[in-house]
Design goal:
With 136 residues, the protein is α+β, with helices and mostly antiparallel strands. The protein is built from seven helices and four strands. The chain has a four-stranded antiparallel β-sheet. It binds ribavirin triphosphate and magnesium ion (MG). Ribavirin triphosphate (RTP) binds next to β4.
Length: 136
């Protein structure tokens, strides 16, 4: 059964010119792009997207960062799409957790500036795809 997941190239990835690199890795893995858009993120959308982190120490910095410049939002499809993209992304901390060969492991240095987002489960993916692409 096929599955959809939400991918974001965060503002650091866009400003560093890594959009093509991320898209290329998604395509080479065998995942399929079904939506792709450059957009500015309103505070309200950022709050809903990261609702699970409300109240945490890094929450305000996270919201400021994700609304600081354009992101590329994509819906990606394939068998086990959420897990497949999380593997491409690597662990949250680009130095301590992300393996070399992953997007964060190859291009990231700091937890806050970890380049990409991927939904963390099929259930999160369903919620996030609806949130970002309600007409899809
Ligand atoms: P994401 O949601 O962005 O795909 O990242 P993730 O699942 O790997 O990590 P998550 O725990 O959901 O955290 C969301 C984002 O918050 C920032 N963060 N900063 N300073 C910190 O300790 C800290 N912890 C998390 C990261 O940018 C992380 O991607
Ligand atoms: Mg997360």
């Amino acid at each position: 059964m096929t599955e959809r997941t939400l991918v974001l190239v965060k503002p650091d990835g866009v400003s560093r010119g890594l959009v093509g690199e991320v898209i290329s890795r998604i395509e080479r893995k065998g995942l399929k792009l079904v939506a792709l858009e450059l957009r500015n993120v309103e505070r309200d959308l950022a709050e809903q997207h990261y609702a699970e982190h409300a109240g945490k120490g890094f929450y305000e910095d996270l919201l400021s960062f994700i609304t600081s410049g354009p992101v590329v939002a994509a819906v990606v499809e394939g068998p086990r799409a959420a897990a497949a993209f999380r593997q491409l992304a690597g662990g949250t901390d680009p130095v301590e957790k992300a393996a070399t060969g992953s997007i964060r492991g190859d291009f990231g240095m700091e937890v806050q500036y970890n380049l990409v987002h991927g939904s963390d489960s099929p259930e999160s993916a369903e919620r996030e795809v609806k949130l970002w692409f309600p007409d899809l």
